[in-house]
């Protein structure tokens, strides 16, 4: 988990297949900015707007995430969407279609920032594809308030892992566990994302979905802050081999995870 973000390739770009950005589409942009600004210390500046009003969240002056405005007539699930780097978004989108996925938006240009598509895998989990130009992606990692990991929660890993391996060139490594269907996706020998098969425990109201983890200085304090700011707890803080984690939701219902990664694991 600790190596997934922060490693860029030539010219500072993320290697293809690496999670490079995360974005959230909401109805109340002002309230959402207030929530995440108070929780993570983010500040905001306007970003490219091919799909409507959009801002980029900054931490210490560097970009960490995007927040966009949904039109009032669009009743889509409010959810964080990870974007995976690609050298050719059109080719990746075509591969997604050939492998049984769906491309719902694009490919299209996001001004001078880059080129994007929004797709879903065969089980319905939504993700983005990003071909960088001026905007390379997340500019700071490894500190509180930054994306730390992306985990796909789905019914089972076998067929879905093959989809992502074909689309993005991942290598797959099972996570040893007697009671868990769990694999880690690798690029160039480095873990970049996970897939967790939940079987019947997969929430029916959400279906298959990607879950973004944000780093927290103190998971318990961050959870309390979420509650104070009008969010709620989905899964209370608990200890794991990777660190102390919790799953929460913002006031519009976007679910995300908080994790405090131990210094010894970095």
Automatic annotation (TrEMBL):
**Residue span(s) of domain VOC:** 18-132, 146-261
Which InterPro entries does the annotation name?
Anthracycline_SecMetBiosynth, Glyas_Bleomycin-R_OHBP_Dase, Glyoxalase_6, VOC_core
Q: Coiled-coil annotation: which residues?
A: none
Query: Pfam families from the xrefs?
Result: Glyoxalase_6
Signal peptide span per the entry?
none
Q: Which domain of life is it from?
A: Bacteria
Spell out the PROSITE patterns in the cross-references: VOC
PANTHER family reported for this sequence: CONSERVED PROTEIN, GLYOXALASE-RELATED
State what protein this is by name: VOC domain-containing protein
Task: Tell me which species this is from.
Answer: Streptomyces capitiformicae
């Amino acid at each position: 988990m600790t190596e997934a973000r922060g490693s860029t390739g030539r010219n500072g770009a993320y290697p293809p297949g690496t999670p490079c950005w995360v974005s959230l589409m909401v109805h109340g942009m002002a309230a959402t900015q207030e929530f995440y600004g108070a929780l993570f210390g983010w500040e905001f500046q306007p970003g490219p707007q091919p799909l409507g009003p959009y801002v980029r969240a900054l931490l210490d002056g560097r970009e960490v995430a995007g927040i966009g405005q949904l039109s009032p007539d669009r009743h889509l699930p409010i959810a964080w969407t990870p974007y995976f780097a690609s050298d050719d978004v059109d080719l990746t989108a075509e591969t997604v279609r050939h492998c049984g996925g769906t491309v719902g938006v694009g490919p299209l240009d996001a001004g001078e920032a880059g080129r994007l598509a929004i797709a879903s895998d065969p089980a319905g989990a939504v993700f983005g594809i990003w071909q960088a130009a001026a905007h390379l992606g997340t500019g700071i990692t490894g500190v509180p308030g930054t994306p730390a990991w992306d985990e796909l929660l789905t019914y089972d890993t076998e067929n879905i892992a093959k989809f992502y391996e074909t689309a993005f060139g991942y290598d797959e490594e099972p996570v040893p566990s007697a009671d868990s269907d769990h694999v880690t996706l690798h690029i160039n020998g480095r873990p970049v994302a996970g897939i967790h098969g939940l079987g019947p425990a997969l929430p029916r109201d959400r279906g298959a979905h990607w879950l973004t983890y944000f780093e927290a200085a103190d998971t318990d304090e961050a959870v309390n802050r979420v509650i104070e700011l009008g969010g709620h707890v989905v899964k209370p803080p608990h200890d794991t081999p990777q660190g102390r984690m919790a799953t929460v939701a913002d006031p519009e219902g976007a679910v995300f995870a908080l994790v405090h990664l131990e210094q010894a694991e970095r």
